[in-house]
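Record type: monomer structure entry
Structure origin: computed from sequence
Chain ID: A
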Amino acid sequence: MADLKTVKLIIKGVVQGVGFRPFIYRIAKELKLFGRVSNTSEGVVVYVNVDEDLLKRFIELIKTKKPPTALISSITYESVDFINFKDFKIEKSAKNKKIEALIPVDLKVCDKCIEDIFNPKDRRFLYPFTNCTNCGPRFSIIKKVPYDRKNTTMKDFKMCRDCKKEYEDPLDRRFHAQPNACPLCGPFVWVITYQGEKKCNDCFDYIARRIISGGIVAIKGLGGFHLACDAFNQEAVKKLREFKRRDFKPFAIMIDDIDDISEMVYTNKTERDILYSVASPIVMLRKKDRSSFEYVSPMLDNVGVMIAYTPLHKILFYFLKKYGFKNPLVMTSGNLRDEPIIKDNDDAIRVFKGFDIFLHNREIYNRIDDSVVFVDELGNIRFIRRSRGYVPSPVILKMNFKNEVFACGGDIKNHFAVYKDGKVFLSPYIGDLENESNRDFFISSYKSMKKLLGFNPKICLVDKHPNYFSTMIAKELFPKIFSVGHHIAHICSVMAENALVDNVIGVAFDGTGWGDDGNIWGGEFFVIKDKLIKRVAHFKYFKLSGGDLAIKEVYRSFVSFFGSDKDFVYEFLKDKIDLNRVDIIFSLGEKNINTFHTSSCGRIFDAVGVLVCGDLYSNFEAEVAMKLEHIAYENRVDERYSFDLTREKDGYVIEWEGLVRDIIKDWRNKKSNVISSKFHNSIIYLIKEMVEKLSIEYQINDVCFSGGVFQNRYLLNGILKILGGRYNIFFNSKTPSNDGCISLGQIYYYLNFLARKD
């Protein structure tokens, strides 16, 4: 007893809202320790009477037995004045001016809660807001830290006697589950029918029957509304496309169990594990037959799939299957085209008038869309969109810079980010900032996360593009702004994720980014050595008429890239478009009017995609490139085209004229079916050749790849296969390789290259 001392432990990380305090309580009871545990704004704080051996055992158990959804970033401890504890208690949350606790992410409903929901003898039978400390809403309902019920949108729901008993029992799995509720005391659902009538009884049965009969339903979920219908009902999907003004862009589907569609898609163990993980994102799965899900994901060889991840969704499938209906559901974001997902009931009633609207009265405080991922051939997860289930978990940096830093990101697929205490917190997916409602969402999310994380940065980072909306927003919010090159930010995002600080070859391929010389970059090779960043190679510039118009009017890229053979351009387009438009593009290029020089690999993919797919317009970003990728998989060959390299003063220029001639030759010889695969192979081997040259020249073996082009699985997997083992290969794995990684890269560039000079 004389060796006992009182020790204060501070445990930081995702340790609130994940059952951490009852876990500490149980460990303390097991070791027969006396003390107390509480939530504070800086993390979980434990005071305990221990000797040295017990302290080591206590910390070891905390690290090895922690709750499955907890994330411990650090455990620190110190001896304090002795406190004569008589037992071990869980105390109420304590306030602290310094906010350091990580905000928990929203979690998929757990298996034990599913058992409760479908147990007719349980008081939560078919209750759509069932949760426990291991599952349920977190970030979407939290208003401020610490994560306590009074600081969430569950504040107005007073727990009944039974729920309160669970909530206060440290040995119950619902101990301090902040959204804890039941049919007697918690949120409830109702329906506004397509005829405008309010329906409060048999809501799930009604909604199930409406979906089966071909109706479209707006469903309030965890982070916002979804629009749902039968994925195999052509008329319903067509009507949904008309409403969303989304003619061809693929929809995601939701299923109750992956076995429901096992005959239609390929899955491996990694993909299944991700589908059923606590994050439960949309996973892009390869179709076994390209015609499968043709209404949902037209002309593509994959489809986005997610598992029913909330009690509400699970119960809906229960009622659907009661009627023998086993089809997957379209489950797409409930919004108008390119606008933020709708989260509030009044907005849903206004926007979705004419559809059945499935509502509930648990307020969504932080809207958050579904995350989207795919798995490469090595089993690595790759993000297309990082949001629900992952936000606001931070990217941990191995550096300690005292000042807080904010980064606006880019204008496309925007995520902003903030650096604080060695961590980078990324916002939920915002979207494209050319849309005013997304700019409003950016500002409201900034204010919300500023409150949650307790940050007040004085330094702001923006893209170098002079006309970005994100820069205009930054000027209104911050007095001190630094600009970061778009493609440098891409490479720095990969460096940040992998704790690389120097001696890196960077490959940045995308559609559009402002270059240091005022041209539009997008096919760049960099070397980062001795803390200096140098562009050492790029695709030869070609003239592009219309600038950003070419993103949607992809025939502009075709005319520009293949324009060295005007006869071919006119021949290919003669029955597809008014040739006066082609004349205008050539004329503007000759006069340098509204024409930009670009090295964009993304625009080259568009140009080749027009030739192979026949599409002159893109309905959504990278549509033609996606189709080109799928054609490459369908008609895979080992042949390739070649690029020529010219050595100039500042590095290599990648000449593409020979590639253009060879592609035209294949087209004229009616070999269009192999053009896509050969083109992809040529990009892969170009990268191989450049990496080999640069590695020898600069004595570097670490290679970072980023940019939207590398969301192409054919390309990514080919690079891994041809370079893996010879070099240390790094792609984005914690953020998307598209512009969703830009804010992370901006912050890392500042911390790694500018901060010491500031």
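Annotation 1: DSSP finds 22 helices and 31 strands in the chain.
Annotation 2: The radius of gyration is 27 Å.
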